[in-house]
Amino acid sequence: MIAWSADNASQTLEAAATRFRNAKSIKANYALIAGNNRTSGSVTFSGDKFVMTSPEISTWYDGTTQWTYMPAQQEVSVSEPTAEELQQINPFIIINKFRNSYTAKTLKAPAQQKKILLTAKQKNADIRTATITLNASTLMPTDISITMADGRTATITVSNLTIGKALPAGTFRFNSRQYPKAQIVDLR
User: Of all helices (H) and strands (E), which one includes residue 77?
Assistant: First the structure.
């Protein structure tokens, strides 16, 4: 199933990471399947910052602080997540962080795609493997499948991805005025 060398896989992911980093902003819709759970939502990135929304949860991350809002509980948790925690919350981050933590191998894929298998270098990593499918011409992700240390799997399918202009910093911070009834729980 492996078609090219690990060097080619690393070069492809490095090029994808560069495109991701150089984009002023990226917006996309996603569908997530994790076990028996299915959800969909939208995500916006700008560098290390992101905001992800779905009916069940919304998360803002400004590069340091993360706010997680759960509408059912009317609660916002505020934290400063570790790099590994961020990867679990936002698997797109693995594209930018792969070189230090994962070994990359190119897998066979249709002509319009590039598929790369990432395997954790450390045996105790929370994310053991990730398979990233990229659009061959844009090098933007179309699908990310991850396998956790405990065997759980999750697959994110990306659609309607657009690259846009720079966004204000407030885009990536929780705005309490929009959620006046939310209780804030500071976990920092």
Answer: strand 75-79
Tokens of 70: 């759960």
Q: CA nearest 33: which of 175, 143, 127, 141?
A: 143
Q: Are 129 and 117 in contact (CB under 8 A)?
A: yes
Q: Give CA–CA dist 47/63, Å, rounded.
A: 9
The pLDDT tens digits along the chain (188 residues) read 334 444 588 899 889 988 888 899 999 999 999 989 999 999 999 988 999 999 999 999 999 999 999 999 999 999 999 887 887 777 677 777 777 788 999 999 999 999 999 999 988 888 899 999 999 999 999 999 999 999 999 999 999 999 999 999 999 999 999 999 999 999 98
- Beta bridge mates, 2: 107
> Can you tell me whether residue 4 is helix, strand or coil?
coil
How far, in Å, CA of 18 to CA of 118, rounded? 17
| Residue 138 φ/ψ, nearest 5 degrees | -100, -20
Among all chains, which residue has been given the structure tokens 């199933």? 1
Distance CA 126, CA 101 (A): 11
**Sign of the alpha-carbon torsion through 85, 88, 92, 96:** positive
